[in-house]
Amino acid sequence: MLKIENLQASIDNKLILKGLNLEVKAGEVHAIMGPNGAGKSTLANIIAGKDDYEISSGTIELNGEDLSELAPEERAHNGVFLSFQYPVEIPGVSVTNFIKTAINQTRKAKGLEDMPAKEMLKMIREKSELLEIDRKFLSRSLNEGFSGGEKKRNEIFQMAMLEPKLAILDETDSGLDIDALRIVANGVNKLKSKDNAVIVITHYQRLLEYIVPDFVHVLYDGKIVKTGDASLALELEAKGYDWIKEELVQ
Amino acid sequence: MSKYTEDDLEQELKTKEYKYGFYTEIESETFAKGLSEEVVIAISKKKNEPDWMTDWRLEAYRVWKTMKEPEWANVHYEKPKFQEIAYYSAPKAKPKLNSLDEVDPELLDTFKRLGISLDEQKKLANVAVDIVIDSVSVATTFKKSLGEKGIIFMPISEAIQEHPELVRKYLGTVIPTTDNFYAALNSAVFSDGSFCYIPKGVRCPMELSTYFRINEGGTGQFERTLVVADKGSYVSYLEGCTAPSRDENQLHAAVVELIAMDDAEIKYSTVQNWYPGNKEGKGGVYNFVTKRALCETNAKVSWTQVETGSAITWKYPSCILKGNNSVGEFYSIAVTNNHQQADTGTKMIHLGKNTRSTIISKGISAGKSQNSYRGLVQISPRAENARNFSQCDSLLMGNDCGAHTFPYIEVKNKTAQIEHEATTSKIGEEQLFYCNQRGIDTEKAIALIVNGFSKEVLNNLPMEFAVEAQKLLEISLEGSVG
């Protein structure tokens, strides 16, 4: 599904990604871990198409299509979803109105009519139940005055509504208490299928107890330096990242 | 990468042409340019007015001659040359019309291009529309069913003929001819406008609506509106404006007077989309408007405005809260783009006891425009327990525009409670990227953000108007956002 080869990218002339390779197949869950400043969020933003980065070499393909040619909204239309680490506030725009606009814009890009209101409402009801979201929450302004947990739950709600092919969860676990973490993880697990893929970016192993990855990658200094199965996350949790640095030096 | 950036948006905004920039060729009868007592008399004569009306105009003209244009507003422009303006212009050949079929087809076509379908308006929105094109009304609908309730809704020129006692009693009582330079000018030369009277205890069964439109090049338009809501009555009045593209600056100096008697309520909503000038700031309408309401005991007046057009806007719909327990509200969205300048706000004059006022102002600036809120909250010594809440929010797009807030608060009674809140924000790259990531392109994202920002005001518009206003915001920001 996603194929990244030798990706080098910089921001403000500072090289962040230094030849990154990653392949994610449909049906897989990948976790990307690594110390602060390793380039985890940069990778997420670049896949989503944020404009701040300069890509100096390498390719990003989604199902064989070169993503770098596409605007962020076009990537979204092609099934890329990013759960933001810091979701933005949009005052006066309700959660419902926002997701309705997002869905209909995506449908429009595919040459489809707007989703009928009845169908939309039904879907909203189902997905909000899945994530244990109160109906009152849906009429609040997007992310305005939301707690950290509400923001993240709202991100996963949007993911559930948009049914992406590739979902990238950028530190979705930060700011979540244990109950919220379980609800969010449960939601992600239910949305998982043979046909979609998930990349979980996280500092901690905690989330991976609930969303069990097929692969764990360690991103360090702009490169993936180690790949393993779920047990690697446990090892990282126990030993920290220093041993990886040492391994690299040798 | 084919990403649509804010720069692209700005570029597109700059190159965006005014959508309604076309010109209808309707034969017009126009007076020679310039203003004198003779011209004032001629206008009055042309309209077959009674002597008291002619005298009233002349008095206004004499006062105007001694006045100076106000210069305190935060706007910069070349002053109109008042002797270069023709003060009367009316579409020719206009016998009384009974149906739309009798209206000049070219005129109807103009409405169509503006998206104003009278038929649709009538059928869907149940709106009685009194259209003013170049100062003379051409079509009045629903007059009959309003008449059954005793409601008078007609061009003010007709009202002067048919209900002189009412017009004479109330005209100029809220905004005296001496009030200010533009109000005096309007009083001297106004050509037409609307008159509305709601009898005691009557609830007007439909939204009353007038569409204004400037058409003839080089003519000023001086509309005069007078709405009188008698005791215990209710009316919702809609005013909407679009104007075609012009090279010369056109002067628009309207006067709107509202009178809400005891227990009456008036809701006055405006969508203003005069030609804003081209992207270099050439042309465009000068909109110098005086709007004021008088509220008697327990009366309520609510002004709602969506201002997207005009090169210069100078406008402060105000409420004189004379009666005890009276209520004044002002809800405003002002959008400026390119070189537009707006200085708009309100005055809430609290005279009576327990009077309350609310001010919600939303300014949106793009391009190189300047957007100012100017508002006065005045509590007189007699106004026990007066309350005011003001909120002024500004939204900026790009780095070349400006937002300014000039709140004036004068309190002469210790029991008053005044609150003022103000915020300034910018549509950020982060917000746009977030929307983009959800599949919403930048243009739509801006519309979404702007609509959210303006929501409190849009919610106060009557339904059918809110939709139109939302469309207008999108249109003016289509180019406007970038």
From TrEMBL, chain A:
Molecular function terms from GO? ATP binding; ATP hydrolysis activity
What name goes with this protein? ABC transporter, ATP-binding protein
Keywords recorded for this protein, A-Z: ATP-binding, Nucleotide-binding
Per the record, the similarity remark reads: Belongs to the ABC transporter superfamily. Ycf16 family.
Q: Which InterPro entries match?
A: AAA+_ATPase (IPR003593), ABC_transporter-like_ATP-bd (IPR003439), FeS-cluster_ATPase_SufC (IPR010230), P-loop_NTPase (IPR027417)
Q: Outline the extent of the ABC transporter domain.
A: 2-246
Name the lineage: Bacteria, Pseudomonadati, Bacteroidota, Flavobacteriia, Flavobacteriales
- Return the Gene3D superfamilies for the record: P-loop containing nucleotide triphosphate hydrolases
Q: Does the keyword Nucleotide-binding apply?
A: yes
Automatic annotation (TrEMBL), chain B:
Domain of life from the UniProt record? Bacteria
Please name the InterPro entries in this protein's record: Fe-S_cluster_assembly_SufBD (IPR055346), SUF_FeS_clus_asmbl_SufB (IPR010231), SUF_FeS_clus_asmbl_SufBD_core (IPR000825), SUF_FeS_clus_asmbl_SufBD_sf (IPR037284), SufBD_N (IPR045595)
One Pfam match, given by its short name, reads SUFBD_core
Q: Name one GO biological process term.
A: iron-sulfur cluster assembly
Q: Which residues form the SUF system FeS cluster assembly SufBD N-terminal domain?
A: 129-204
The SUF system FeS cluster assembly SufBD core domain is annotated at 212-453
PANTHER family in the cross-refs: FES CLUSTER ASSEMBLY PROTEIN SUF, UPF0051 PROTEIN ABCI8, CHLOROPLASTIC-RELATED
Family, according to the entry, reads as follows: Belongs to the iron-sulfur cluster assembly SufBD family.
Q: What is this protein called?
A: Fe-S cluster assembly protein SufB
